[in-house]
Amino acid sequence: MKNDDLDFDKKHIWHPYTSMTHPLPTYPVVSAHGYELILRDGRRLIDGMSSWWAAIHGYNHPIINQVMHAQINRMSHVMFGGIVHPPAVELCRRLVNTMPTGLECVFLADSGSVAVEIAIKMALQYWQARGNPRYEILALRKGYHGDTYGAMAVSDPENSMHNMYQNYLPSNRFLNSPTRRFEENWQKGDETSFSQFFSQHHKKIAAVIMEPIVQGVGGMRFYHPEYLRLTRMLCNQYEILFIADEIATGFGRTGKWLACNYADVTPDILCLGKALTGGMMTLSATLTFRHIAETISNSKAGCFMHGPTFMANPLACAAANASLSLLENDSWYQHVEKISTYLSVGLAPLISHPKVRDIRVLGAIGVVEIVQEVNISQIQHWFVENGVWIRPFKNLIYLTPPYIISKEALMKLINAIAMSLDQPENFISS
Ligand code: PMP
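^ thats the input. predicted complex w/ 4'-deoxy-4'-aminopyridoxal-5'-phosphate below
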């Protein structure tokens, strides 16, 4: 990459949540191996992000690469309308076998946000098919489910970055975000507001959607599993569908295969994405029960109304198969448990720092909540200068490293965070 390319980037290319007039700096990454990103000047950065929860095996994994090369040589894409191919069948079989029992009808699509759109559409079509249309989805404040319209409409209505589209979005109902933390004791009475809400509004509600246990973009909050059990129970009682958005949490990130496993609940509709392909390609899956799929299919419409051009892209399915096979053979649980221990031990002392409000760790997720917002361009620059790739947001510096990270590399990430706290210019003064 030449300087020219960087100028072109600045002038012509949008980056996520970035201004075109005052763009945040971008760093030229020319390759990535294992847990390292390699900059064009040869510097190597330890990756603390897994490219937003996705690259769980690290980059350029030789086995996934090999499977993908083999698939390219056969075909990288073919339409899914009227055609089926081996990578899709293998992937759906793997998902049906490894996801909670009964979730056996799989819809493959392009991205996490689209998986959420599909889940919402399934719920709406299900109620229509039952001759009892329901038009509202119940969601959690501080929730986040993606950037497309349906997904935005079930993300936090006030504080999310989507409030600017509010007048154009369908109106949904929102429950207050769970207050009882993951590690706290559940108290009698915690369930009152949830139960009351369901009993008052259930007749209009087609489905409830939640990020199980971890509210990510809405604040990296870890809430008590009892909320999930309660939600499952109330959904059963009032006949409401339960959609679990495990796009960020799925495939072991929280220390369980799914975050729902902390509460032993099975949703009616499950959304997967991000780490599904080991972060190699964009792909998502929405799974549901046969009786839901059959109700939708036996309606007047006769089918589920969705069918993206790149549905079940064979190359992405091949990557997902390779990733799932690695997870199967390579005790992901032990890696995540070790990362969890190192994060807990390494981050705990930071709680005494005046800049730190809270430290929390769950599985391979470590969060340092700061009392001030970070100056993103400054702190990112500081991290790069110190050999690590960490991208905080608002007042949250967090780590979601690849499962293959070494102890030494993880300690470097933790030390970098510790040192960053003593640089006043990394934070916006309040
Ligand atoms: N749901 C959750 C919980 C997410 O974290 C995200 C992505 N950050 C999405 C949905 C949307 O996924 P994608 O960015 O692949 O559209």
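The radius of gyration is 22 Å.
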